[in-house]
Design a protein that fits this description.
Blueprint: H1 2-20, H2 28-31, E1 49-50, H3 53-62, E2 65-70, H4 78-85, H5 89-94, E3 98-102, H6 105-110, E4 118-123, E5 126-129, H7 137-144, H8 147-150, E6 157-158, H9 161-170, E7 173-179, H10 193-205, H11 209-214, E8 218-223, H12 225-230, E9 238-243, E10 246-249, H13 257-269, E11 278-279, H14 282-291, E12 294-299, H15 305-314, H16 318-323, E13 327-331, H17 334-339, E14 347-352, E15 355-358, H18 366-378, E16 383-384, H19 387-395, E17 400-404, H20 410-419, H21 423-429, E18 432-436, H22 439-444, E19 452-457, E20 460-463, H23 471-483, E21 488-489, H24 492-501, E22 504-509, H25 515-524, H26 528-533, E23 537-541, H27 544-549, E24 557-562, E25 565-568, H28 576-588, H29 597-606, E26 609-614, H30 620-629, H31 633-638, E27 642-646, H32 649-654, E28 662-667, E29 670-673, H33 681-693, E30 698-699, H34 702-711, E31 714-719, H35 728-736, H36 740-745, E32 749-753, H37 757-761, E33 769-774, E34 777-780, H38 788-796, H39 798-801, E35 808-809, H40 812-821, E36 824-829, H41 835-844, H42 848-853, E37 857-861, H43 866-869, ...
Parallel strand pairs: 1-3, 2-3, 6-8, 7-8, 11-13, 12-13, 16-18, 17-18, 21-23, 22-23, 26-27, 30-32, 31-32, 35-37, 36-37, 40-42, 41-42, 47-48
Antiparallel strand pairs: 2-4, 4-5, 7-9, 9-10, 12-14, 14-15, 17-19, 19-20, 22-24, 24-25, 26-28, 28-29, 31-33, 33-34, 36-38, 38-39, 41-43, 43-44, 45-46
């Protein structure tokens, strides 16, 4: 009994010991092992928590960052993926991201999950689906903790300290707003000053979050006072900018978000070890221009050698720009360049407070660029802008004063000098002052005489009518404009311009002497500011004629123009609040506008794609159809088709519309009638899109057809008669659709009609029938209508187009075709409706047949702006074209006999004079003719006629050499390519211009130069003036042009081709006065900047090229002038990198051509070369080396020229 008790007690003690020391109860064998350790306690495995739909909903409501793993029971790979993701569960927890899993297909579908497994990341309840590899758990972790995954639009994301540390490590540029803890500043509790300051700063800084993101700068916030103390940030809120993990503290006012953004941008590149100009996108560039006062932009093309060479040079001044507070960026975007009026890349534009200024100097001279930029900072002058830049500023609604001027006009220069004095005062008033030298842009604003000043506010122009030389009065006027709070009064020209340029314009047509108008105007002044806030320009016009042009019969009236489309207000003008509501509604919601017949006519005239619904507003069925068509208004707007409605039965009858509603589509004024069901809006939409996107033969009524025949020169009509789908007429019509494009290109209108009224009038008895109306004169087709090629050939045949005994009226398209295809053409240009021109035409009809007998085409044209299109001094005008070259008749246009004699003389005479060309023809020649010489002259030039007379002597010779020689007195065109001094000779080779720099009076030298350009193997690049461009607007008038010339230098040594590096393009002072071929500019391929001159031995000289040999023979011309001292073309030589000698000829010595009379030095070189060759048998000697490189020279050019960038 005692034993049993002792045994029981012992067992109890052992059990207690075992429970107290489990590590020792492992069996005796283990305890005796050497080095044995007690087993570590087992930790529970990391498991992603399972949740249901309600739990997930609560979790998303409570937590900012939640990762959800979606799986399904039937999913084969889900368990495998889950096992991988379980490995990062603890890591996500440490980053403050809750990771859960859920099996709920219905809920998954709501969040866009269709396949399993899947992962969704919720950031402040905003979901984003992970599309990477779920088996890559590290990749998933990077995604969940990345700044990109946390990014929310228009919101600065909140992070914790661990995520912040990772973002700083992974992101080059990140701005962090430190705020007090949430315990200190609970959400929506603003009882403490620092809490209010933080909330206000956050509100302002969120306005620039997207801009910072576009610039590649991350933006986050953190509520962590402990971390702020660690950084010694002091009082909160505080902004810290981490650039490559280096913190920079912002010391300015956090509530001025624009200052913050500028500070972030300036600090983005400052101090970078790699001195690189930052690349930006178009959107980023717009942000920078809006927020940075001093910005330089290089527009370039990374695939262009010129651009990359320029970029390399400009990298050298990037730091200097930073030191002076000028931000430097680059952009490779041709569209963005075009938006700023840049049509030649590379180009530099400097923006100062959003005002652009284009640099027109040498882009290879970085020191000159830096000097110019610093000059822009210091200089206070009115900036020049392009027309594209001006349009952009006006559309943005900025307050600007624009001086339209002519740089070559003395009065303009004087006015400009005076106005420079008030530039600062304008800045103080918030007025941007710019100037523009562009005659076409001036004409657009109704300015025919410069200088003239226009003030723009919110896109609305006001012309200054005072004395521009009195800057004090002008300043007072500008001050009054800025302080005035009235609806602007405008002219009819200004109205047309505003409608064209502004997206939303409200126009009050009124009578300033009418009491009702005055009363309504007083009411409407109350909503002017509200219209501005809604981006609606509000103007008024007192012009009865203009009102009638828009079909406004009742004054006063309001019309809202939305992108040029008029909407008439039919409410009570005395209720300004209702009017404002209507204006805002029209702007926000798209509706088909109601128009008058006059408005419709204007739209037909000016709108390329227009759909017009004719309806009766008192007919319920019509209104139902109109409501259906409202559904496709937005789609049509996206496709560029304007749709309007008109309630006018009389206007409908003019188009032959007997039944309403009806739809007519106008494309370039040509109408097409819709024959389908108007209740089916999808069918209507499809038909309109087909009309716009494909060439179709338009369906018309008799009334429309009559108008077309009367208004257009060439109209082809396919009369089908009553025609049902599937019938022969329908098949024939479908086949003829294939030639519609060709006829359109030729300026011939092709339509079809089922109506028979016009057909009967022109003796059409059987259907289908094709009739060609040429200036209202009909011609019936009698061939096979099913053979569309035969139809096309017949229509476009010269005999078909010609009307016996009449001068054919042609449009521009047809005229271009005639001039291109015919050797001799007489053209009478006139304005439609000109009575004098009609009398002249009656006389000219008498000589049409005689011209036809001589195979001379005689046509007339009266298209709009035909004088501008063909660069005519005035209308009417008569011109004779021989092989596209024009001669204008200067005699009496009423004397047809003299005109006939003049035409026949020109036709039969041989062209032994240099042909005169107009702008249009010259542009065609530059593009089409490979070798073209153009003599530019000015009618006011005294020496031009004498020089031209000399050059006439070589016209035949240039023809023999395949060089076409023409002359042009188009001063404007000359200015566009940098020519300001006359006369001037430019040689175009495949469209690339080269300026002649010699004496134009010596025709033999000119001929030799032209022939050399054609036959020379050298490369020529652009025009220049000591490396600077000669664009219009510079203060100097260049008269010394130097085209860059790249010529081969023959290699003298039998060595391998040395490595070559491109050096800067420039002109050395020593080049002045040298002859061509004596060692041009200082551009060369060399291993070092300088080459030593060998002593004891003469430096080896390059052999002269063939061209140089020719020049050396003719050391003087046959005249008495000193043109022999003309400046040379800049050469590019290819120099060896060896330091033992130079391939460059010494100054003052001419290169020696090979021959019997070589000097001793050349013989010595040859002798030494032979000795070397004898020692190295089996290797290249000098002679074979030169022959080898001559044979491979073209390949060598290709290799070398990849590293050169030469340009104007």
């Amino acid at each position: 009994m005692t034993f049993t008790r002792l045994k029981t007690l012992s067992l109890l003690v052992c059990a207690l010991l075992a429970l107290s020391f489990p590590g020792y109860v492992n069996g005796g064998a283990n305890n005796n092992k050497k080095g044995s350790q007690p087993a570590a306690p087992v930790e529970p495995e990391a498991v992603i928590e399972e949740v249901n739909a309600k739990q997930l909903e609560k979790l998303l409501a409570d937590k900012d960052y939640v990762a959800v793993f979606w799986y399904a029971r039937s999913c084969v790979t889900c368990d495998k993926v889950l096992a991988e993701l379980e490995k990062i569960d603890d890591d996500t927890d440490s980053f403050g991201v809750d990771f859960v899993k859920i099996n709920d297909k219905r809920l998954a579908k709501q969040y866009g999950i269709k396949n399993f497994p899947a992962l969704t990341y919720f950031r402040e309840k905003e979901p984003i689906i992970y599309d990477g590899d779920l088996m890559d758990e590290e990749g998933v972790l990077d995604f969940l903790t990345s700044l990109e995954a946390m990014d929310l639009p228009d919101r600065i994301e909140e992070v914790n300290s661990k995520i912040l540390q990772k973002i700083i490590e992974d992101t080059d540029f990140v701005a962090v707003l430190f705020c007090p803890d949430h315990e200190t500043c609970p959400p929506r509790v603003m009882d403490k000053q620092q809490c209010r300051k933080c909330a206000k700063a956050l509100q302002e800084l969120e306005n620039i979050d997207d801009e910072a993101d576009q610039l590649g700068i991350g933006f986050v916030k953190i509520h962590d006072e402990a971390l702020a103390d660690e950084y010694n940030l002091g009082s909160l809120p505080a902004l810290v900018y981490y650039r490559h993990q280096t913190p920079i503290i912002y010391e300015g006012e956090l509530q001025r978000e624009e200052d913050v953004l500028e500070w972030l941008v300036q600090n983005k590149s400052t101090g970078d070890e790699d001195d690189v100009i930052e690349d930006v996108t178009s959107k980023t560039l717009s942000t920078l221009i809006s927020n940075i006062d001093n910005l330089v932009v290089l527009f370039y093309d990374h695939g262009n050698d010129d651009s990359m060479t320029v970029l390399e040079e400009l990298e050298q001044i990037d730091d200097d720009c930073d030191k002076h507070g000028i931000q430097f960026v680059k952009i490779d975007d041709a569209k963005a360049a075009g938006d700023y009026g840049i049509d030649s890349i590379p180009a530099i534009v400097y923006f100062e407070k959003e005002i652009p200024n284009v640099y027109d100097g040498d882009l290879m001279d970085e020191e000159q660029i830096l000097k110019w930029l610093l000059g822009q900072l210091e200089r206070d002058e009115i900036e020049d802008v392009t027309d594209e830049m001006l349009d952009t500023m006006i559309k943005e609604g900025r307050v600007i004063a624009v001086l339209f001027y002519d740089n070559n006009d003395k009065k303009s220069q004087k006015v400009l000098e005076e106005l420079e004095n008030i530039d600062d005062e304008c800045d103080a008033l918030g007025i941007t002052f710019v100037k523009i030298d562009n005659p076409e842009e001036a004409v657009e604003y109704g300015i025919n005489k410069v200088p003239k000043l226009i003030y723009f506010e919110k896109g609305i122009p006001t012309i200054y009518e005072g004395n521009l030389e009195d800057e004090e009065k002008l300043l007072k006027w500008l001050t009054d404009q800025t302080s005035s709070d009235q609806i602007e009064d405008i002219t009819d020209e200004m109205l047309d311009l505003i409608i064209e340029k502004m997206p939303h314009v409200a126009v009050l047509f009124y009578d300033k002497d009418q009491k009702k108008s005055q009363k309504i105007l007083a009411e409407l002044e109350n909503i002017d500011d509200e219209c501005d806030q809604n981006d609606i320009a509000f103007v008024k016009i007192d012009d009865d004629k203009e009102a009638k042009e828009w079909g406004i019969d009742e004054i006063p009236s309001i019309v809202l123009f939305e992108r040029g489309i008029p909407h008439i207000y039919e409410g009570d003008l005395m209720k300004e609040d209702e009017l404002l509501g209507w204006l805002v509604h029209q702007k926000r919601y798209s509706e088909i506008p109601e128009v008058t017949d006059e408005m419709k006519d204007k739209l037909v005239e000016n709108t390329e794609h227009l759909a017009v619904i004719f309806y009766d507003k008192d007919d319920k069925q019509d209104m139902r159809i109109l409501n259906e068509l409202e559904n496709i208004d937005d789609e049509l707007e996206k496709e560029g088709i304007v749709i309007v409605r008109i309630d006018n039965a009389a206007e409908a009858k003019e188009y032959g519309l007997d039944h309403l509603p009806a739809l007519i589509y106008f494309e370039n004024k040509i109408p097409a009638l819709y024959e389908g069901d108007l209740m089916n809006e999808d069918e209507v939409l499809e038909w309109l899109l087909v009309q716009k996107k494909t060439a179709t033969i338009e369906e018309v009524t008799d009334e429309i057809l009559v108008n077309l025949i009367n208004e257009h020169e060439y109209v082809v009509v396919f009369f089908t008669g009553p025609c049902e789908p599937g019938e022969t007429c329908d098949h024939t019509l479908n086949a003829l659709e294939s030639i519609d494009d060709e006829l359109d290109e030729a300026g011939i209108i092709f339509v079809t009609t089922e109506d028979t009224g016009v057909a009967k009038k022109y003796n059409v008895k059987t259907y289908p029938r094709l009739v060609f109306f040429r200036n209202r004169d009909p011609l019936h087709f009698t061939g096979d209508l099913d053979d569309e090629d035969e139809v096309l050939a017949w229509i476009t045949d010269d005999e078909t187009l010609e009307i016996p005994g009449k001068i054919e009226e042609v449009n521009v398209k047809m005229l271009d075709k005639i001039l291109a295809e015919n050797d001799h053409v007489v053209v009478f240009f006139y304005a439609e409706g000109d009575k004098k021109a009609q009398k002249i035409l009656n006389e000219l009809e008498n000589i049409d047949d005689e011209c036809e007998e001589k195979d001379i085409d005689f046509v007339k044209t009266s298209d709009d702006d035909i004088d501008k299109e063909y660069d005519l001094p005035s209308l009417p005008a008569l011109a004779f074209y021989r092989h596209k070259f024009r001669t204008i008749y200067t005699g009496d246009l009423m004397k047809e006999e003299e005109i006939l004699e003049w035409v026949i003389d020109l036709h039969e005479s041989t062209a032994d004079v240099i042909e005169s060309v107009d702008r249009k023809t010259l542009q065609v020649l530059i593009n089409d003719v490979e070798h073209l010489a153009v003599f530019f002259y000015d009618d006011e030039c005294e020496s031009c006629s004498e020089i031209l007379e000399e050059l006439e002597n070589i016209d035949d010779d240039t023809d023999k050499h395949g060089i076409q020689f023409v002359k042009s007195n188009d001063v404007k065109l000359a200015h566009e390519i940098g020519i300001f001094a006359f006369p001037a000779l430019v040689y175009y080779e495949t469209g690339v211009p080269i300026m002649y720099d010699g004496n134009l009076k010596n025709e033999n030298r000119v001929l030799q130069w032209l022939v050399n350009q054609k036959n020379d193997e050298c490369f020529y690049v652009g025009l220049g003036h000591d490396g600077h461009s000669a664009k219009r607007g510079n203060n100097f008038v260049p008269n010394d042009y130097k085209p860059f010339q790249c010529c081969p230098t023959k290699l003298e040594k039998s060595t391998k081709v040395p490595k070559m590096t491109a050096q800067r393009i420039g002109h050395s002072e020593g080049d002045q006065g040298k002859r061509p071929g004596v060692g041009g500019g200082n551009f060369q391929f060399a291993g070092s900047a300088s080459t030593s001159t060998t002593t004891g031995k003469s430096a080896s000289k390059p052999a002269a090229t063939k061209k140089q040999a020719k020049v050396s023979k003719d050391t003087d011309d046959d005249d008495e002038d000193d043109d022999d001292e003309e400046k040379p073309l800049v050469k590019v030589s290819y120099a060896n990198k060896r330091s033992g000698g130079s391939n460059k000829p010494q100054a003052g010595k001419k290169p020696v051509a090979k021959g019997k009379d070589n000097d001793d030095e050349s013989q010595e070189v040859e002798k030494v070369s032979k000795q070397k060759a004898s020692k190295k048998s089996g290797k290249l000697n000098v002679k074979t080396g030169i022959n080898f490189f001559q044979n491979r020279l073209k390949n060598l050019y290709d290799i070398i020229f990849q590293d050169i960038s030469l340009w104007e």
